[in-house]
Amino acid sequence: FNAMIAFISEDFATILDDKNAILAREKADMMLDLYCGMSKILLEETEKSNMWTYKLYRKTDLDDMDTDDGENANARRATKESIMRLNAKVNDLKASNEELKASNDSMSVKVSELKESNESLHAKFDELDSLVR
Length: 133
Fold this sequence. Notes:
80% helix, mainly alpha, single chain
């Protein structure tokens, strides 16, 4: 009976460690998402007022988390390659954002032109209306 309790206790500790690692990674992912979405001014203020901290893991813990079997897929550590892929995605999103901004600016100009045209049409209709009456 004591052996069974010891075995279950060891499995529970492993599960708890995996849960904590997954939660820490999710928290880091959320922090990165928030950090990437900040405006330049807010980003600079945040960088000035905060200090980064690091959590150190034993290499064996990291190797345990670095499996591709899907069971611990969310607990994998970041590699240079994955960071480079994320940077490429961020750069693509920035380029897309710049294109959208340019498109938005050109549409704003067109909307302004349409408003002016609409106002002149209203003025002409008012003239016609006054002539008819």
